[in-house]
Amino acid sequence: MTGAGRGDEAELVAASDFAGVPDEFQRLWTPHRMAYINVGAEAMRAACPFCAAPGKSDEDGLIVHRGTSAYVLLNLFPYNSGHLLICPYRHVATYDQATAEEVAEIGALTQIGMRVLRRVSRCDGFNIGMNQGAVAGAGVDEHLHQHIVPRWASDANFFPIIAKTKALPQLLGEVRQAVADAWPV
User: Fold this and answer.
1) pLDDT over 80 at 61, yes or no
2) Residues annotated as catalytic (active site), given as ranges
3) What does the pLDDT average to over 157-173?
4) Euclidean distance between the first and the last CA atom of the chain, given in angstroms as a whole number
5) Are 145 and 29 in contact (CB under 8 A)?
6) Rounded CA gap, 25 and 28, in Å?
7) Rounded CA separation 6/115 (Å)
8) Radius of gyration (Cα) for the chain, nearest Å?
9) Secondary structure letter of residue 55 according to DSSP
10) Whole-Å CA distances, 92 to 96, 128, 154
11) Which domains, ranges and CATH numbers included, belong to the chain?
12) How far apart are CA 121 and CA 175, in angstroms?
């Protein structure tokens, strides 16, 4: 087939290749991610979100507990509902740069966070870890933070495998309030 009288071969395009036509990926509405998109990755790296959070209200910073040398907040881009981060206030990049006091408090806050998440969300288990450096998967690689990701026996159902979709049943503000309310004083 020739295109528009130019003698060039016209390209045949399947209707399924047009925008708006369903494909194998399902879309999940996540308006909270607009904060990252609007600011941009470069700006997020230029202004450390973990240094900025303690200067905000608990609600605006998604903070659930403030300790002496470390604090607990919700992940703005959670893997699962209730995904917590434990951060030292001090801007250090890796675990070996943390003081003994920071390491001890990060550990204690991790234990408390697990207990609180069990009580609030009735989770069945956890993924806990730190990605040290960009090559290791750290989204914010200049400020140490530990992840606590609650897991349920049914959270690895067909959604992420077949539909390539994660379901988050609660808004971040609701989760933050529930975890903060359950945190021991």
Assistant:
1) yes
2) 145
3) 68
4) 75
5) no
6) 10
7) 71
8) 21
9) G
10) 9, 19, 36
11) 29-182 (3.30.428.10)
12) 9
